[in-house]
Every structure is written in structure tokens, then in C-alpha cells.
Amino acid sequence: MGKHTMERKEFRAHELTDDFVRYLRRSEEPGRDVGIFLAEDLLQGRQMRPPFKAKDFQKAEREWKKNPCYSDYKAACESIWNDVKYFPVMISENDPDLAVNYGDSWMSERTYGGTRGHEGTDLMASKNERGLYPIVSMTDGVVTSRGWLPKGGWRIGITSPHGGYFYYAHLDSYADAREGDTVKAGDIIGYMGDSGYGEEGTTGKFPVHLHLGIYLLEGNREISINPYWILRYIENSKLKCVYS
């Protein structure tokens, strides 16, 4: 266990289960529990089985605490999980048909800019209209990047208090938050669009959607984490607004 563990595809894929996600929604320390769950699965080959009970995690934690790298491993899991509060797309109070859907597309093939793995989850708009769907910060944090990227279009990146980096891409426009500003979980940071895959201002290369990326930061390196199960965890924590 250690930094090399966090770089393994198995850890980055963050493969959980529906039963465990239901347990996490009742957990007071989601990062700790995810860390123990994944450690058991990845390093011992003995995934915990439902029903998940606090005493089961306490027992496993006593064992894992003997590992000198466990505190770093736990901190990595906390940076991903412990600051997440809200689903990133607000839902409409006046039109229930304005929905989003998403699947587990992490590391599926993409070809723009060369063949590569898809480091995120795409939340697709049911209505293909740019500028309609408000995007909120999933966490408290500081805006650490903002502006154009050829692959991501108009994007904004927010670093949360525990150090996770949350990346929102293909925006149509921004709200008021600028680089260096502090945001609160639930603040509107922009609007869903179809920007990217070209020089600054390019739109229309793909349907309107939000690309969500979640990263661990190791020095100057970004380690991508599959956002799918984090989104499932906060599926019921959606803010509402009147779309106009």
C-alpha cells in the first residue's frame, strides 16, 4: 500500500457496489470507509459483503493501521470523498423532462488529440440546448483553473479543502467565480454547453453535456479517479431551480 497503490488502475477505477453506496450515504466518514473497502478488495482479494456494519470497518481498520502507508492512503480517499455535498447539475422545478443521464464511461476510448482514455464521466442533457443547465460546485473549495482548453473547452477546476481537484468541462459560460476565488458547495459556477475540441470558442462538435473529472494531485501530476460512483453516492443530493 502507498502512492503506487493510488496509481493503479484498479484503485483509480474506484469500483464500488450499489449496496456499499447505500451504506456510504449513512456514513459519517465516507473517505475512511471507501479506503477500507478498496484496500480489502485490491490488496487482500476479499471484498466486504453486505450488510456493511461499522464494526466490520473498525475491525478491518485495526489491521490496516499496521501498514505504515495507511494514513497516506486514507488521506487520498478522504480527498476524493469527504468534501462532496451536491450533484453537479441542478434539476428543474418547472420542467421535469429537463434531466441528465450518465453511465460509467471512465477510460473508454477517445480520439480527439490522439487515442486516449476518457478520464471522467459525461452527464448528458436530455435537451440539447447550450446555456440551459446550471452547473454547481460539488464541494467547497478554491477556483484553481479557469479558461479554455482545446479538449475541455471552457472549463473550471476547483480544489476542495481535503485536496481533491474537481474539473468541470465543456461549459457554455461561467458564473462570477474567477481563479483564486473561494466557492461554497452548491454555488453556480457555470452553464452546460458543447465547447471544446478546437481552438478557443469552438462549439457544436458533440452534444451538450458536462464532463466531470475528479483527480488526486501528486506534486505536478494529476491522477484521475472514476467519478461514476461519486455521482451515484450524491444522486439524491440535487439542488433545484426554475430554468429560464
UniProtKB/TrEMBL annotation:
Which branch of life, at top level? Bacteria
All copies of the M23ase beta-sheet core domain together span 117-216
In terms of InterPro entries, this protein maps to:
Cell_wall_metabolism_enzyme, Dup_hybrid_motif, LytM_N, M23ase_b-sheet_dom
Pfam families reported for this sequence:
LytM_N, Peptidase_M23
Q: Which residues form the LytM N-terminal domain?
A: 5-83
What PANTHER family does UniProt report for this protein, alphabetically?
A: PEPTIDASE M23 DOMAIN-CONTAINING PROTEIN (PTHR21666:SF268), PEPTIDASE-RELATED (PTHR21666)
Q: In its UniProt entry, what is this protein called?
A: M23 family metallopeptidase
Lineage at the top is: Bacteria, Bacillati, Bacillota, Clostridia, Lachnospirales
